[in-house]
Design goal:
By secondary structure, this protein is of the alpha+beta class. The protein is built from eight helices and eight strands. The chain has a three-stranded antiparallel β-sheet with strand order 1-5-4, with helices on both faces. Strands 6-7-8 form a three-stranded antiparallel β-sheet, with no helix packed on it. The chain has a two-stranded antiparallel sheet with strand order 2-3. A hairpin with a 2-residue loop joins strand 4 and strand 5.
């Protein structure tokens, strides 16, 4: 499966021999709450206490995702796959030691782990500074007050915002000063308590070092969150340029036709529903009908 700015990801076809249908429905499906992660974040942003200034955002990406959750030996045998090799060579049998892509139980089991991390991070338990805390921050000047055009719906009686959410393996923290660094610290401790990463392990570190170097984990008022560019100082949310281009192309193609597929309509729905976001206290200046 191709990925933007990343290597293609292998996905096993566990539906061909009805493998997915053969498992008991015991996976914790209620743990999959990522579909409403963005509305939860935006609601807390819109109703924060304006006296503490613009909230700061950061992202932590879990390296290796599903491969952080181990499988039992029985499950590994049941999820074994055949890997074709060159012509004339014998096929290989691969036994997954962790959650594989393509198994319909992988998402709920994985979300059970990541939602636990978010719950622990939101418990606000004080910790000593995590060894990665200083490395995540590429310091830069951030505005201490909201832009004059920003609309904030929260009251001055509320405590400073401190909240962590997760979308699959993307952990997002939104917090106001002076709780921004403690919130980040709580998330790091929660991650390393749930996903045990021993020092003797030769695999990549738990938190993606590449994303840290790119500044994703740096607390900032401007951050790309779940495909949207959010600015907490101006309280605006916009689409990145590459998504705007794709949306324009899609709408242009749809306008010239008398009918279109349900899949295309659904792919447009999130972008076209963006004008409803001002009702949450956020503006969408680049998503007006005139711009489109």
């Amino acid at each position: 499966m191709p990925q933007r700015d990343q290597h293609p990801r292998p996905i096993m076809d566990y539906s061909y021999y009805d493998t997915n249908k053969g498992f008991l429905p015991i996976a914790p499906n209620h743990a999959m709450q990522f579909g409403t992660a963005l509305p939860r974040l935006l609601q807390r942003l819109a109703y924060c206490n304006p006296s503490f200034g613009p909230p700061l955002l950061d992202k932590l990406d879990l390296a290796d995702g599903y491969y952080r959750v181990p499988l039992s030996s029985t499950a590994a045998l049941q999820l074994a796959v055949v890997i074709p090799t060159d012509v004339g060579s014998e096929n290989l049998i691969a036994l997954p030691l962790s959650l594989p892509m393509g198994w319909n139980h992988s998402p709920p089991f994985f979300c059970a782990y990541t939602e636990t991390v978010a719950d622990m991070a939101n418990s606000h338990t004080p910790h000593v500074d995590h060894h990665l805390l200083a490395h995540t921050q590429i310091y830069q000047e951030e505005p201490l007050t909201f832009h004059s055009a920003a609309q904030v719906l929260g009251t001055t009686t509320l405590p400073p915002l401190q909240y962590t959410d997760v979308f699959l393996d993307d952990f997002i923290t939104i917090a106001q000063r002076p709780l921004h660094m403690p919130a980040m610290n709580n998330l790091l401790h929660a991650l390393y308590n749930v996903f045990i990463d021993r020092p003797s392990n030769t695999r990549r570190q738990l938190v993606s070092a590449k994303k840290i170097q790119q500044g994703d984990a740096t607390l900032s008022t401007k951050k790309r969150i779940l495909g949207w560019d959010i600015d907490t100082a101006t309280m605006t949310i916009t689409l990145p340029e590459h998504r705007l281009f794709a949306l324009r192309q899609m709408l242009t193609d749809m306008i010239q036709k008398t009918r279109t597929s349900r899949k295309k309509r659904r792919s447009c729905w999130v972008c076209c529903a963006a004008p409803a976001l001002p009702y949450m206290g956020l503006h969408t200046p680049s998503l007006s009908s005139k711009t489109l």
